[in-house]
Design a protein that fits this description.
Structural class: mainly alpha
Shape: elongated
Number of helices: 7
Mean pLDDT: 77
Helix content: 40-55%
Distance between the termini: 33 Å
Radius of gyration: 34 Å
Largest sheet: 3 strands, antiparallel
Low-confidence stretches: 20-31
Number of strands: 3
Strand content: 5-15%
């Protein structure tokens, strides 16, 4: 009567994954490549375009709240003269509102992608053109009293920067990653054909218990 013997470990040697032999290469091991370089370039373009929109819109809003004209009305003595300061927002009420909308759009560029981002870039471009027109009007209009042209010029410059940033987003924005895309969890690579689902430790434990580690 022969003694009962357990399963032959050599029979299942090929079923146990060996470190190094069955390891699946990951993106970290592959090193930098054209795809990674393109992604980094897209993030840089996204940063520069967003900064252009933010700086331009903020400059336009700030310039629109400055005093564009000062009108002094002389009254009979002994009454003092009346000084009336008018800001760009008082002369062109829609101007700072467009700048605020452009600021919000610049922030939304980071959270959008694809066609929606391109459409947002077109909207920012139109807002920048409108702000530029408002600044140009402030430079040439004949306001009452003493007029300060530096603030309409600053508003015009802010509109140009906003328009350039919006055009950049509309032209290239579809290729750029969205905010937080670099921190998304990568999709795991599928296992190789014939590689057991169990780890090496589980397979050896199953052999010690007299179980078949390849059984499903």
């Amino acid at each position: 009567m022969s003694a009962a013997t357990g399963p032959d470990p050599g029979r299942y040697a090929d079923a146990v994954p060996t470190p190094g032999r069955d390891a699946v290469p990951t993106s970290a091991d592959s090193g930098p490549g054209p795809g990674r370089d393109a992604s980094a370039g897209g993030r840089r373009e996204l940063t520069y375009a967003t900064l252009l929109c933010l700086v331009g819109a903020a400059l336009a809003v700030w310039a629109a709240t400055r005093t564009w004209s000062v009108e002094v009305t002389v009254r009979p003595a002994p009454l003092p003269a009346v000084r009336a300061d008018r800001s760009g927002a008082a002369l062109l009420p829609w101007l700072p509102a467009l700048g605020v909308v452009a600021l919000a759009g610049a922030g939304a560029v980071l959270a959008t992608r694809g066609r929606l981002r391109r459409a947002l870039g077109a909207l920012i471009l139109l807002l920048g053109v409108a702000v530029t027109a408002g600044g140009g009007y402030g430079l040439t209009a004949a306001f009452d009293g003493e007029v300060s042209r530096q603030w309409p010029a600053s508003c015009l410059l802010g509109g140009v920067l906003t328009a350039v940033g919006g055009a950049w987003v509309g032209w290239r924005g579809q290729r750029w990653p969205a905010m937080g895309a670099r921190y998304e969890r990568p999709v795991a690579a599928p296992p190789r054909a014939g590689t057991p689902a169990r780890g090496a430790t589980d397979a050896w434990d199953a052999l010690d218990r007299g179980e078949d580690p390849t059984a499903t």
